[in-house]
Amino acid sequence: MIVQGTFTFAGPRATVWELLQNPDVLVKALPGAKRLVRAGEDRYEGLMQVGVGPVTAAEFAVTVSLRDKVPPERYTMEVDSKGTLGFTRGGARVELEALADAVTLMRYTAELQVGGKIASVGQRLLDQVAKLMTRQALDALNNELRARLAGGGSP
Length: 155
Prior knowledge:
Blueprint: E1 2-9, H1 13-20, H2 23-29, E2 33-40, E3 43-52, E4 55-70, E5 74-83, E6 86-99, E7 103-115, H3 123-151
Antiparallel strand pairs: 1-7, 2-3, 3-4, 4-5, 5-6, 6-7
Helix pairs in contact: 1-3, 2-3
């Protein structure tokens, strides 16, 4: 499964970059995320609860590793998750471009493999859920960015 697109953040690239490296922010932004902690340099571990069609409330242990970082421009992400109802693994490339008026354009491309019972719901449903979860996560990150910029806090 491939998920790709763009998203415009209402803030400067350096601040967006910092939010994307902060597990306390990411756990609030990722739909279904219950826990996400830094487990080492550029490595995070956590727990997510995801429902897809008839497969509801499936818990997955997730590991995320960041590679090829060029702050604040781009990085790649490797994701591996396992649960009793299946697994996902894959990678994503994230690029941030500074635009005028302290706006940041994100380009992302992710390729994921899904297996086990969760894969049995069908590719079309999995694609729809992946796109919806991505949009929800990016909207939540943008809301966090706006709140931090309005409050003068740092990420």
